[in-house]
Every structure is written in structure tokens, then in C-alpha cells.
């Protein structure tokens, strides 16, 4: 089977690029003795990818109960479910742990901490700490931090934080500063909890940028990063990887040609590509994605998906498109703006290794 045989739109995963990205992050983490990489599988959602990213069924991060269950079934016991838990989901996590799992939940709420402590099943929790992102979490120096840990009691396993605001930074110096603030906040929180007698087995932080550029990881047990595996047009502009390190693209077919407006239509629209506009604030705006040739090369220059409808994408360029090379049915590939959202609507990866031959088909889990 080759790319020519595949239904469109679909995901193409280049194994050699994936492996290169994994090696790059592993080397960055290995700079810090004792630090463990806990890959975030919220993007890939695939056991086959997890086997490469966390060899030997190592620790991972997940973002849904469905992922937790799927990866536990694949032998990944040590997980952090890195979204604030609700009491209604505690039974499901406790059931996984009763079957041999070690799925740790997170909370930044004192009432939820009390519910975790009162639950009859096996549960452990991390207190979520806000080190500048301004999403979930409590401040490292807040009284709420110690109150939550106190309510968790013996169920407390440590703290976690996420520097999602690092994605807004554009300079290495700025990324290093955010990484240091994240590190300082995490260590401060962990120190305070230990001083009150709480168990702090886990001090978990990270995003792909801060995992790569953090200079001091003393006192941290693991870093969580995920988008580095596949990469995208946005990450390629903020230093996570190069623009030739995007491992996942969307295979799509030309469905319409519009020479009067120098555009082609493809059968990858808003669902297949997502409507994420992350590169809008990056140095280069790639619209909803960049059109590549069938071999994944930027042969068409800046041929950008300028508009999307549900199942239509419209590719435009400031330079004349080669319509002779783009007949109806011609296959092209779209490099994604934000790979996490692009892959979300698909149920499998067609795996290649730098060529057009499909070497494997890897499943992925969707839903919640």
C-alpha cells in the first residue's frame, strides 16, 4: 500500500521525523541527572507512539479518562491525568488503579480534595500549581495550596504545574525565563508541602518549550511535554523544532481548481485540519495550514490554506499556482497549524518512513 491508495483526508505520520523529534527531547531531558520525561500523550493518543516515546511502558501523561483507560490497557501503569478532576470521574480512575494502575489525578479545589480523600477506592492526587499561565492551579505561596494538601491527607502525592504561557514567547531568553519561573514556583510549592508533612513524591512540570530550554531542574521529578513528538507550523516558529521536523501531515486530494483567483480546493476542511489559528500571532501566518507536495516537500512555496469550510479547504498563494501539476484528484499534504487539534478528528495514522510506502497503520483513541 502506498499513499496513492489511501482515502482522503487522512493522517500521514513520518516515522523517521517522529523518531528524530523524540531523540531531541530525550537528549534535552538527559541534561538533568535523575529527571524523567513523562510524555504527554494528549496529542498522539496512540499506544504505538507511546511505546516509542516512553520505552518500557514508562510514565506518561493523559488528558481524558478514555486515554487513561486505553493506555492502561496497553500496559502504561504510571500516569498523570493532567486535567482537574471532578468527583464524578473518581470512580473510573479508582477502578483503573484497583486493576493495577497508578493513575494520579490533579486538583486545585479544596472541596474536590476532600472528595478524593473520602473516596473508598485507591486514589492519589497532585495539587495543581499556577506558575504564570493563569489557567488552572493555585499560587505556590498561597494558603490554598496547603489547605488542599491538608484535605488530601495521605492521598497527596505531590504537585504539578504547566507553563502553557511559554507558547507566547518568541525568544530563547524569554523561554528560559519562563522555564526558571516555572521551576522556582514548583520547588517553592513542593518545599512548603514537605514542611507541613505532606508526601511529595512527584514534582511535575513542563511544556515542550520549557522542557527544552529549562536550565535548572533541581528538585523536579519529571517533565511533561507532548507536541514535540509531531510538531507543527506554530512550534516550528518558536524554537521547539525546525519547520522540516513536522512529523504529521494531512493527505488530501484536489477537488477544485480556480485559476481566476489563483486557488485550489481540497477535501480537507475545518474538521480534517481544525480551525485553529495559532500562527496568526507568530512571525509567519500560515492560515489553516501549508500545502506540500505528495512527498511532504514545500514545492508550491507559500501555498496556504486561506479558508476552510466543513469539508473544503481553499489553498491560495501570492505566486501563481502550478495548475498543470494540480489536476482534480491530485494528492497533496497539509502541514498543520496546531497538530494537537488537527489530529483530533482522525482515528488512525498511516505510517511512512520518508517515502510513499505505508509501513503500518496505528490506531489512536478519541473521545472522553
Q: If classified by CATH, what would the architecture of the largest domain be?
A: Alpha-Beta Barrel
CATH T-level fold name of the largest domain = TIM Barrel
Radius of gyration: 22 Å
Tell me the overall shape.
elongated
Number of strands: 17
Please state the average pLDDT score.
96
N-to-C terminal Cα separation, in Å?
32 Å
Strand content is: 15-25%
Helix proportion of residues, in percent? 25-40%
Describe this structure as you would to a colleague.
The protein is of the alpha/beta class and 368 residues long. The protein folds into two domains: 3-11 and 240-363, D-serine dehydratase-like domain (Lyase, Ornithine Decarboxylase, Chain A, domain 1), CATH 2.40.37.20; 40-225, TIM Barrel (Alpha-Beta Barrel). 27% of the residues lie in helices and 22% in strands. It has ten helices and 17 strands. It has helices spanning 15-30, 47-53, 65-73, 90-98, 110-118, 143-152, 172-195, 208-213, 270-273, 339-342; strands spanning 10-14, 36-37, 60-62, 78-84, 102-107, 124-129, 156-161, 202-205, 222-223, 248-258, 263-266, 290-292, 304-308, 313-316, 331-335, 348-352, 360-363. Strands 1, 10, 11, 12, 13, 14, 15, 16 and 17 form a nine-stranded mixed β-sheet that branches. It has an eight-stranded parallel β-sheet with strand order 2-9-8-7-6-5-4-3. A hairpin with a 4-residue loop joins β13 (304-308) and β14 (313-316). α5 (110-118) packs parallel to α6. The radius of gyration is 22 Å and the shape is elongated. The model has no long low-confidence stretch (mean pLDDT 96).
Amino acid at each position: 500500500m502506498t499513499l496513492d491508495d489511501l482515502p482522503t483526508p487522512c493522517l500521514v505520520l513520518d516515522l523517521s521525523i517522529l523518531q528524530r523529534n523524540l531523540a531531541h527531547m530525550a537528549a534535552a531531558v538527559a541534561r538533568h541527572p535523575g529527571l524523567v520525561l513523562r510524555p504527554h500523550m494528549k496529542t498522539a493518543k496512540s499506544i504505538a507512539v507511546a511505546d516509542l516515546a516512553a520505552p518500557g511502558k514508562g510514565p506518561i501523561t493523559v488528558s481524558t479518562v478514555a486515554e487513561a483507560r486505553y493506555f492502561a490497557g496497553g500496559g502504561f501503569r504510571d500516569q498523570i491525568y493532567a486535567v482537574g478532576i471532578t468527583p464524578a470521574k473518581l470512580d473510573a480512575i479508582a477502578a483503573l488503579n484497583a486493576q493495577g494502575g497508578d493513575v494520579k489525578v490533579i486538583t486545585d479545589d479544596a472541596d474536590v480534595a476532600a472528595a478524593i480523600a473520602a473516596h473508598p477506592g485507591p486514589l492519589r492526587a497532585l495539587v495543581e500549581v499556577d506558575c504564570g499561565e493563569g489557567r488552572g492551579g493555585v499560587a505556590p505561596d498561597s494558603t490554598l495550596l496547603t489547605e488542599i494538601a491538608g484535605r488530601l491527607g495521605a492521598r497527596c502525592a505531590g504537585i504539578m504545574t504547566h507553563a502553557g504561557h511559554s507558547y507566547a514567547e518568541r525568544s530563547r531568553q524569554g523561554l528560559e525565563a519562563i522555564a526558571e519561573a516555572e521551576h522556582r514556583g514548583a520547588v517553592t510549592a513542593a518545599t512548603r508541602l514537605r514542611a507541613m508533612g505532606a508526601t511529595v513524591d512527584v514534582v511535575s512540570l513542563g511544556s515542550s518549550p520549557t522542557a527544552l530550554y529549562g536550565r535548572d531542574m533541581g528538585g523536579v521529578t519529571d517533565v511533561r511535554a507532548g507536541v514535540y513528538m509531531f510538531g507543527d507550523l506554530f512550534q516550528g516558529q518558536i524554537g521547539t523544532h525546525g519547520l522540516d521536523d513536522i512529523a504529521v501531515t494531512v493527505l488530501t486530494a484536489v477537488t477544485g481548481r480556480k485559476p481566476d483567483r489563483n486557488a485550489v480546493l481540497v477535501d480537507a476542511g475545518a474538521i480534517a485540519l481544525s480551525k485553529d489559528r495559532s500562527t496568526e500571532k507568530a512571525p509567519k501566518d500560515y492560515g489553516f495550514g501549508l500545502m506540500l507536495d505528495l512527498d511532504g516537500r514545500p514545492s508550491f512555496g507559500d501555498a496556504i490554506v486561506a479558508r476552510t469550510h466543513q469539508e473544503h479547504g481553499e489553498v491560495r498563494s501570492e505566486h501563481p499556482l502550478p495548475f498543470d501539476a494540480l489536476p482534480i484528484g491530485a494528492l497533496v499534504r497539509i502541514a498543520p497549524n496546531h497538530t494537537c487539534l488537527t489530529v483530533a478528528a482522525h482515528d488512525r495514522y498511516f505510517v511512512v518512513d520518508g517515502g510513499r510506502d505505508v509501513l503500518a497503520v496505528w490506531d489512536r483513541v478519541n473521545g472522553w
